[in-house]
Write the structure tokens for this entry.
Amino acid sequence: MNIEQMRALSQAIDSTWGNASTQGTNATMSIKANLFGESGLHVLYTTVVNLGSVEEWHFSKDLHEDQAKRAVDEYIKSVKEEYKEITDEALKVKSVSKDDSFELISMSAYSPRKTAYYRVAVNFEVQE
């Protein structure tokens, strides 16, 4: 990727000025992206999950994985459209790695309800 392509891509993923990392009216989910290396694009999906018990993690994991995949795919599609508007060139990316995790952020001995972050980090390689 040359410097002009990097600038265009960084403009397309910028969520610090005029764009939000939350999509629509969903304030419990965000997607942030950044560039790394010569041709890497790191996308981080985060959502808040309310669980009745820790055992629910196993049952709800598939649901949250599916939601995360759709959200990341939609995000990449919008980045490609924005990049196309800026450069009149098509952006090609290939997923090279994915990692997900649950992080318990709130619990009480007096309530079965638990709150956690579900995160999915996806690394893409920008192809020419």
User: Anything to note?
Assistant: The CA atoms of residues 46 and 119 lie 4 Å apart. The chain has a mean pLDDT of 87.
